[in-house]
Amino acid sequence: MADSSARKSVTIIVTVLVLVVLAAAAAAAFVYSGMYYIGADVPHSRFVFNALEELRDRSIVSNARQVAVPADLNTPKRFEAGAGLYAEMCTGCHLAPGMEPTEISQGLYPSAPRLAEGSDLTPAQEFWTIKHGVKLTAMPAWGKTHSDDLIGDMVAYIRRMPRLTPQQYKATVARAPADHDEMMEEMHQH
Fold first, then answer.
1. Quick one: 158 exposed, middle or buried, by C-beta within 10 A (0-12, 13-18, 19+)?
2. 176 in helix, strand or coil?
3. Statement: residue 188 has pLDDT above 70
């Protein structure tokens, strides 16, 4: 009886291993065939889109748990510094209050969130996303070139921007303390 049970267990294990190898081989054949259309001008299938969206969302939530959000996000200094950074670095894809879609924003797939309409991310998730970027989207890892302090400024601005009218948006950008090049120069001097 024990011998029969052991044979069944071995048969099950071998069957599972064969199925895993076949599935891996089929996946590899699919990837290497180039059959899947990767052009940004045709949407993913619903299955692929949902799988990628879930992967992205879960990864951001998981990785953002380690982010210590600056306590002073609501200060006018951060908000105004973030206005200049957002205007120079983000509007091409994410737009701004009252801004019409740009050539870049129209060609992105998946399309970038319109941050002027709000975000369902927490400040820690926004910070992590800005710092590390998102693969297979146009979202760069700004942490490679920008300090955590500047990223905090961007988060401060993004958090309040949805409440701005187009005129208020333009006014905050006009009041921004320095242009992007000056901010980058100051960052490298410290």
1. buried
2. coil
3. no
- Per-residue b or e along 21-46, where b marks 16 or more CB atoms closer than 10 Å to that residue's CB: eeeeeeeeeeeeeeeeeeeeeeebee
Residue 126 has pLDDT above 90, yes or no: yes
The pTM of this model reads 0.83
Q: Which of 6-10, 50-54, 97-101, 122-126 has the lowest mean pLDDT?
A: 6-10
What's the longest Cα–Cα distance across the chain?
Answer: 83
pLDDT band at 177 (very low <50, low <70, confident <90, very high): confident
Q: Which residue has the tokens 């895993």?
A: 20
What is the rounded average pLDDT for all residues in the chain? 91
Percent above pLDDT 70 for the chain: 93
Q: Which tokens in the block code for residue 126?
A: 């926004």
From the CB of residue 138, how many other CB atoms can be counted at a distance below 10 Å?
17
Do 123 and 155 contact (CB within 8 A), yes or no? Answer: yes
Residue with tokens 């969130």: 113
**3-state secondary structure (DSSP) of residue 42:** coil
Contact 73, 156 (CB under 8 A): yes
Q: How far apart are CA 119 and CA 121, in angstroms?
A: 5
Listed residue (97, 102, 100) closest to 117, CA to CA: 97
Size of the chain in residues: 190
Give the domains, in start order, of the chain with CATH numbers: 60-189 (1.10.760)
